[in-house]
User: Fold these one by one.
Assistant:
Number 1:
Amino acid sequence: MSHQQSPSSFKDLLVLFIAIVLAVAIGLLAHKTKPIETTTAPATASQIAFEDEIAAKISRWNCVQDVPKHLWDKWTPDPTRFEGVNEFLFKTGTNGTELEEILYFHRLKMDRRGVSWIPYNSHAFNQFMVGAGGKRVKFQGSSRIEKGEFHYHFQFEHAKKGMLGLKLVYFIPHEYLI
């Protein structure tokens, strides 16, 4: 036995439903909320002096030995300052590979032997270059620390693809410096 509602009772239920929805909506609109306060206390003179001292120390870093050892694995890529990376990846056929991920997303780690990408060993870049040109690639790299930033330059001379250069810039995020 099936139970069917008459059109008038269905219409009454629909009107009741709409009235309830409107009442809830009006109640929500009428409910006064307090604006979120986002003010922060102004920095104290000692906080400003401390941050200025950190900035001054970082700006004096000119070589790896100037950087405290506990920060050697904190170098974070700043892709907005990279140069030549997209062209390099395209011309070597390494775009969309693990190499691209390494360059854009992995921190650098320094040690006495040199620089490597975490968690990769120091030869990760060279291993990818074997696939991108093998023995036909002449590789030259250099690095420097300038005003607290690590600049890593690579230059490749490829028999078929010509001269390719890229510049990578890394920084140590503020949270590691305080």
Number 2:
Amino acid sequence: MAGTGPVTARYAGVVVSGTVPGRDRVACRESAGRVGAMMGRQHACCGLLVGVALAGLVPSAPLPVRGLVVAVAGGAALLPDLDHPGATAARSLGLLTRVIAHAVDWVSLTVYHATRAPGDPAERRSGHRTLTHTVPGCLLPGLLLTVAGLLWPVSLAVACSLLTGLLALGLRRAGLLLLVVSSVVSWWTLTTYPGWWWLVSVAVSCGCLVHLAGDWVTEAGVPLLWPLQSEQCRWRLLTAPVTFPAGSPVETQIVAPLLLLGLLVEAFWATGLLGAVVAAVSPEVSG
């Protein structure tokens, strides 16, 4: 709803009320309760969508490389939620990823307090939906993977295996089996086609960025403008003009089927099957 009005925000159990110019929903706030982020399965589907699109932009890449890019982007779309110990990414490898999640949460909270503007509440005690939900924070994993790949090439295969396994967990399909298979496939693909390793790093950043887009269209919002300051806030959570509650029937019964349909259409288009089907069902035009 447009206009200026009172805003009630919840920061890890602390409610902060105030008046913020502009839309109520773009106030400096951390949503709680029913206002959450998009569900993991939908994030994974969004990642697959952007992965297929990315693979379609490099038709010269070998088919195994393009397939790996799609899977990696799907898994990377779950990475930004590694700042929350209860998220799918944090549960992917048990105690190890839970420890990492707590570390990411701590780093994110530290960055928040180090960079917050006067309008950003000082009461925040959680780093969820802060650093890893910014554009720089989404580009960072791809950059780190690039550096790691240059220094230690085997790290690319390890990352691909973990991200593909994370994708399976996000889709809730054969996580352990896919993790084992993806380890072998990732190693074979990256050693057989070493010249395409950079595409994996791009896929990781693209997957993280599409996570932002997913949360942007929910009522949760993301600090899209960070580190820029606006209306005395640097961590203002922005949302799309039209949003829906995460986990609501809108997401599960409308958005999810549309994502699946879009993924199927895009996959058919990328493989050339869509054109073949259209040509087969279209009536021939006699000259």
Number 3:
Amino acid sequence: MRRTPLPALALPAACLLLLTACGTERQGAAASATPSTARDCGAGSPTAPGTPDGDEVVVIGTGTGPGADRARPCGTYAVTNRGTEPLTYTVTLGFQDADTGRGLTNVKDTVEAVAPGRTVRRTVTADDATAGVSSDAAGRVTLSVLTVRGVPAAEASSEGGACPPTGVRVYADEGDAAMGLRVVGLHLENCGTRPYRLKGHPRVEPLDEARERVDGVAVLEGGDAIASGTGADGPPEQLVLAPGERARAGLVWRNTVDSGTEGPVAAPYPRVWAKPGAAPVMVIPELDLGTTGKLGVGPWKKEQKR
């Protein structure tokens, strides 16, 4: 059974913030890892490169960027696709106080459809979590790469943007965690022009950090196979989603780790098929299955209109 150690984040996942980022793409190797001032976001102190996944992602430097009422910490990094197919990357970075090492905030950036051999340079700016940082201190921050996730661009999930050619989009939410129990929602939206029929449970295949199937994990129908009261239970229903309507199915697991057993299982990339014959979509809920080796998958249920 392939087992992958869990990544360690500098700040809790709840601290992750969405941000605005822009980038440029160029042919060739990754931008230089030599510390340098990030001209993209203003003058400031450079940072050492962070490369948890080899040289796929490197930090170029940090500085200050414009905010609504004051300057905010910002940083520039580069991501290079070393693979053989286009990949969509989700990169989580952390800003820290350069003087104390205190974590300020984490940011998550999505870099879409990076072609093989291409490098994309991105600039990220910290959000309101750094409201207590003075303008002078904003220029004295470091930036580190916490996690890098890359999925085939053809299978990338998206909550918004252009409707995929399939006419549906599938994505995972941030989920809930309490006392070792994890519940993440899979959402399907009919963004096309025709009704979309669903029945039963989505097919889910847990994948490891190399996007290879994790052996030895039991994927069970119904969240009640793991815990009751999660909402991911009940009999499957025949659903017909009109354009604009949504459905939800729950993923339920425990990250319990028993002593004296093999190490915990990490499966960051579940591949999801909404129904038989559907195109697969890869989501990133970071399945930390502990040593339980079990994942419960609830049936599709129609969501109420927003």
Number 4:
Amino acid sequence: MYIHLSIAIIIVLVIKSSVNAIDVCKLCQCSDDLTLINCDKKGLQNLDNIDFPSNVKTLTLINNSLKFDTINDRTKIESLPKLTNLILNQNPLEIIPPFNIRTLQFLSLEDTSLTSAEFPISYNNSSLQRISLSNNKIHSINETDFLVLHNSQLTELSLKNNQLKSCEFLLNLPRLYSINLDKNQFTSLPEQLTTPGKIRNYSFMHNFITVIDETSPLNIWLKNNYTNMKIYLTNNSLDCCLSFWFIRFLKISFEIVGNASLLTCTSPLNFAGKLLIDLNPDEMNCHNDITKKPRVIGIISGFIGIIIISIVAAFIWNQRRPLRSGYREIDGIDESYGGPAFPISDEEIQ
């Protein structure tokens, strides 16, 4: 009897699962084997009326109105035993949802209005290998924000297009292999690069780095012969007259800088737009450029001063001119000793 009852329950569950799978695939796009489900742009505010097939491996819920701030919504995701890729881009999350998914390997939370990168304790000992938090509003990341991922298998992390100026958190990601920090607010290469650990690829494109000199972590790479590293630096505000060391570095370690052939000077003006690989520091005349600037500024300031003085003098002369129209010069009287206090009419003189 129990055997028949168990079989009946299994049949009911299978039928229920099939119905659910058909329902979700009417709303979303599903692969034939139901391992990939795309529910992008469906206007979803919650998952109350949706059940996903148990064999889904990749689930995308891009551009909805999901927050995952209820246990029910999170349970719908956590109950998928084979889920490895979860993409929640363009949802108003604001914080990282506290999922507990041991099978998850890739998590994408791009453009979700995140202001914090703190991972909840539920991610402790997770299987995450890749994370993307790009296109958010993260100003800073504390050293402890990624602490629960310390023992994870995380190898790739993207923080592109945020507002970061430092990266102390790197020390808590010992297995990290690649980090993307493009379009942030770095003004120099952070000191954490001096102890790269297992990181082999750094990207700092589209930042505000102006000077790369002998104090840069790249000098440590050079001294320690870290030839298996790659760093990408295009579209920064490089001052070539203050980066002689880096220009020489490119001559001997060209392969370390991934896009070295595209790097250009932003300043000073006489080098703006020139490729760094075409420059020879021994032939760059930066001193003259520096001394010419004050001279040019002085000439321009003097010219502007002359114009201002001329305008003021002309204004004063025009203001005084009408006041003298009623006066007549009297022969034999020296103006230096004072003339009449009021205008003299022709009748009074006669």
